[in-house]
Amino acid sequence: MNVAVVMGGYSDESVISLRSGQLILNEINKKKYTSFEVHILKSEWYCIVKGDKFLINKADFSFINQGITAKFDVVINTVHGTPGEDGHLQAYWELLDIPYTGCNFYQSGLTFNKRDTLSVLSKFEIPMAKSIYLSKGDSFTGAEIKAQLGLPFFVKPNQSGSSLGVSMVSTLDDLDKALEFAFAEDHDILIESYLNGIEVSVGVLKYKGETKVLGITEILTQNEFFDYEAKYLGKSEEITPARISKQIENKVIETAIKVYETLGMSGFSRTDFIIMNDIPHFIEINTNPGLSPQSIFPQQARFAKIEMSDLLDNEIEQALKRKPIWDKMK
Question: Of 210, 207, 273, which Cα lies nearest the Cα of 244?
């Protein structure tokens, strides 16, 4: 079976995605699958075979090697950010009737949009921070934000990952710089109240037909918060399992499963919470979590004593069973 391991992307997260793709290429069961390293970048799409680069034909997601057209039976999608985590590639593969791992284009688009995700979950009594949504050019004052959210608060791009463009604002003097930083990533932003508590990240997936929590990881950062530097440049300590009571652990597991199922998820995910007053408050969900060796999801797989090759087998099986979304509408 020909498996395209798709990595890269159009955002600053592409560097992390390339690391995730390499882990998958290393861990996939080579006796069962012939894997191909496929890069999707703004400049070009290509497949690497024995060190040689072959351009991908976007009309049918194939490439030509020595006069023979090579096609893929299934895609493992590990593109972080756009276009692989926001639904664009998923819709493209649906149109071509190529099975792919992870959630479909609707869930991808929904969960990549922080405001829309919070709006859906708020109807299901999921605890979360207070928030304000702003678009570039909106009229507002720092005093109005402070009155609603207090200090400190977070300024985030509405659609971005890996904490790119995120700032913590401790005084209103820092607000203009934080806004500029966030608007550089997206023309819409989310401003959220500060939650003072224990930060945890929870790996959740569909495994053998059931929603399964791999583990709960406690995040201890050397920075003000778990930003890009803390995530990827060694400025944090990640403790699995988290040092929380059994009672709180059960609450986190229950809430993480509720979030996953409420959003209609499938595939790998990593959901972040702040535990404040013994209650897990939802921060965000990542539908293409980092899979580099230092990433949290592989750590949790090791904790759960499940080989990454088994998890990838499970993902491929689910992808092959899933029908295109229009088939479900018939």
Answer: 273
